[in-house]
Design goal:
alpha+beta; Pseudouridine synthase; Archaeosine Trna-guanine Transglycosylase, Chain: A, domain 4; 3 domains; 10-stranded mixed beta sheet; 5-stranded mixed beta sheet; 19 strands; PsdUridine_synth_N; TruB_C; tRNA processing; isomerase
Length: about 300
Amino acid sequence: MKRKGTGPDGLVIVDKPEGITSHGVVARIRRLAGTRKVGHAGTLDPMATGVLVIGVERATRLLGHLMLTDKTYEATIRLGQTTITDDREGEVTASVPVIGVGRAAIDAEIAKLTGRIMQVPSKVSAIKIDGKRSYHRVREGEDFELPARPTTVHSFTVHELRETVAEDGTAVLDLDVTVDCSSGTYIRALARDLGAALGVGGHLTALRRTKVGPYDVASAQTLEQLEEQFSVLPIGAAAAAAFPRWDIGEEDARRLSTGARLKSAGLDTGGPIAVFGPDETFLALVEEQGGQAKPVAVFVG
């Protein structure tokens, strides 16, 4: 039975508009859902649009696991200008006319940014250094370096190249790209590093996240649509879409609801498994270790 004053349990797949923070979206969903227990899986910058996965009530416990899933982005990279934020919202710090940079050179450098790479995150990020957000240090004028981190770019595809002229008169080259990558990849950093490798600088001028794990923009709702009719993807359906499924019997369901370990299902997924009881109730997320299924989050009992 739901407690009085709580919202529905489930995910909301939002198509975030430009100009609002992820926290701003969470605030809107809190009001619509009638609960403060709302969170998100992976932020989007105010400039970015697209898929933002929001958890309501018990579904917030899924978010930490969903943050580890792969993501897809559509972006526009401008070659010829460097900015302090690695995107169009920051001050331009250098301009170099793009002359004689051909598709072959671009593809060669993109190949080096594909696969398992070490990436230095953008300084204007939420990464903490000694307990202080990196972007706060930038705003305060601090000079610092972030360490490189491993990430995986599954594919980095250029669809179109457009020659144009920037506001300061610099001849620049805009690339429309699609990036499939692991969680923790900074698309702004890819733009920065591609431009640096080509000797002309680069930054991001547009970013749209089209997929987070199994949730894509085609199934997302705008804030306007949610204002008209608020609904969630039920927690069981959300878990079944995102994780391998394991159906168990009544006795095992009873034991799992108390937090007990079960004999491994032998699924060997290397990650969380969504467990369902005989009545289709979503029970828990488990991970297989040493022949046992260990609960990592229990949603009943």
